[in-house]
């Protein structure tokens, strides 16, 4: 439910300032009001929903500046994770990372967006774990959860799956070489590109715009 409502907000189907009626949402998704209420609470914590005392909830206005600041933080955190992974991942972790990455190429060929999206989450989680730093892991996971709807939106852009895979390839190659500096740069660049792709859906008050990203 969090994902379903969050995706509709990010892609502009639910507009900034629009009232979020629990009854209407429950009817739309064929559920009771309880999961809707819980989802709105989670989305409020993520900054996508504004809950007003005695007035219900509305879609929050997410400014480009705020979104950019979150992605900037995400890029640095992922760079740290990739850099640490290059020197701290075990041999088994490196092999698993490479095997899963190569297997994901088939998803790109098939245009399997949902499958690749799931893989993408797992790929980045491997980097967070591979850093072998619990505090950085928790910070990165927390930041990623707040950006999750925006990161998913990137895959709605034409050609994004293939470009994402190529960016992952640079990260994996650097980690396999044990090159922390290159791994960190590749991860930072990757998230910066994701930021540009995702920001398309926050532009113009959330209106969906489809364009390729260089």
Q: What's the helix-strand series?
A: HEHHEEHHHHHH
Roughly how much helix do the residues carry, as a percent range?
over 70%
Question: Unreliable stretches, pLDDT < 50, 5 or more residues?
Answer: 204-214
Describe the largest sheet: 3 strands, antiparallel
Overall radius of gyration: 18 Å
Order of strands in the sheet with most strands: 1-3-2
Average pLDDT rating: 86
Helix/strand/pairing category: mainly alpha
Q: Count the E strands.
A: 3
Apparent shape: elongated
What is the count of helical runs? 9
Strand content: under 5%
Beginning-to-end CA distance, first to last residue: 32 Å
Overview of the structural elements:
The chain has 214 residues and is mainly alpha-helical. It has helices at 2-10, 22-29, 33-45, 64-88, 91-110, 113-130, 134-153, 160-177, 180-199; strands at residues 19-20, 49-52, 56-59. Helix 4 crosses helix 7 (134-153), helix 5 (91-110) packs antiparallel against helix 8 (160-177) and helix 6 runs antiparallel to helix 7. 34% of the residues are buried. The longest helix has 25 residues, at 64-88. It has 9 helices and 3 strands, in the order H-E-H-H-E-E-H-H-H-H-H-H. Strand 2 (49-52) and strand 3 (56-59) form a beta hairpin.
